[in-house]
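Reader question, answered in our methods column.
A reader sent in the components of a multi-part assembly and asked whether the whole thing could be modeled at once rather than chain by chain. We filled in our standard form and ran it. Here is what they sent:
COMPLEX SIZE: four components
ENTRIES:
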Amino acid sequence: MNEKSPCCDITVIHEELVEQLRKTMPPEEELFNLAEFFKVFGDTTRIRILYALFQSEMCVCDIAHLLDMTQSAISHQLRVLKGAKLVRYRKEGRVVYYSLDDDHIKAIFDQGYQHIQERN
Amino acid sequence: MNEKSPCCDITVIHEELVEQLRKTMPPEEELFNLAEFFKVFGDTTRIRILYALFQSEMCVCDIAHLLDMTQSAISHQLRVLKGAKLVRYRKEGRVVYYSLDDDHIKAIFDQGYQHIQERN
DNA sequence: TGAACATATGAACAGGTATTCACATTTGAC
DNA sequence: GTCAAATGTGAATACCTGTTCATATGTTCA
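And here is the structure of the entire assembly that came back:
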């Protein structure tokens, strides 16, 4: 959310097109939320966690061990994933098991994968 | 690329599972690239640019005008989108027209949209 | 109850990133 | 050629974000 007016010397070439499009643009907030959502995918650690959870439900310390990172770092990232409703958890004693929360996730993941494959 | 060994007191609960998964994990670099790719979607300005380009090919100053941002800011972001092979461009005189470069993009976009709709 | 373990969390720090500003580059018109 | 317009770009700045460290919370087991 960082909107500032341009510094003034803006010219428009296709004014009519722009005014047309302005009407069809979704509200700022929706596109902002969408960007926030994709931001969650935009981190190596979180992507690796998601990939791991595609394979199996896992507890925090196992994920940490698998990715060779501290439990704290993983816990922080799981918090983010939880906030985006990408993972859910269940407690079993003092162990907390995380798993995927949504069906779109794998689809989005795969489509991204496909893109970076093809562009080479 | 920020890999550091955890500080030592790591315990594993399901060692066998972890060792299994370790074998199926794609190489670091691939997941890194995937995260880099999603990172491009993780910015409001770029998402708005992409949305605009879904509707129509556009030149830089029109995009700037539509989004009420400076031409420079837009140009910088188009550079990023170009780097990710999400947009292509054609020159017509001194005007540069940008358009979408790939079919996955809309699919990914829509799936993200769907997710944030449903999670509410 | 107390000790050990699994996880969560807040503060701090470092690295990354988006915008701005000033200016370079390229093209078209005269 | 000169001027103006459209775009690109590098440096600087302010903000954001991921990890670490220290510590808190909650649970099991003796």
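What stands out: The first helix of chain A runs from residue 15 to 24. The beta strands of chain A are 58-59, 87-92, 95-100.
Send us your own complexes using the same form.
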